[in-house]
């Protein structure tokens, strides 16, 4: 049987901000096609972890490889190339308020993929909007969309450049429970359709249960527990169980 390919490999990763030691030697391997959820209380370093993966923060020590490349050793060109394979779905969807949905989607096509053919840009925008179930919103501004719709457009804009890895930062924050489940199920649908690998940061138990093949819990700068939702929910460790109440 062919061994699983690790698209993210983290060993003994440390990151401090002044006197504050946030990550104290974490380790994590993420296999191609896997959805890994990271949970932890506020300030435990969840967002720091995915910012290090994306090369937005530089670790103090340890190893972090994405697609086999040591991120801290990449020059600017190498970082740009790596980031084309990475999608980042921000907490607030991070859409440009003054641009229509079409313009928001076309922006990375022109900027990142250097597309110039108008018809190809239009077709690609419509395809990805259809994938997230919003094909009638092309002319709308972000302010005209609900919170859940903005999250979908944010996901569409990430998917439009066909990333191999998607980093989700609290994808269901601020949504009601029904919309939250819709977004969580959409994350699964998009993995199936676009063959993505995902690292998902969330406080939302429903999102963790729906999306996560594996869940890790950060505590005091290290991963204190790892397993499926059911395994962690029934853990003998009281701290771990406290997340699932």
From TrEMBL:
Q: Which InterPro entries match?
A: AAA+_ATPase, ABC_transporter-like_ATP-bd, ABC_transporter-like_CS, P-loop_NTPase
Keyword Zinc set for record: no
According to the entry, every stretch annotated as the ABC transporter domain falls at: 8-245
What name goes with this protein? Answer: Organic solvent ABC transporter ATP-binding protein
Which Gene3D superfamilies does this chain map to? P-loop containing nucleotide triphosphate hydrolases
Molecular function (GO) terms listed?
Answer: ATP binding; ATP hydrolysis activity
| Keywords in alphabetical order | ATP-binding, Nucleotide-binding, Transport
Any single Pfam family the record assigns to this protein: ABC_tran
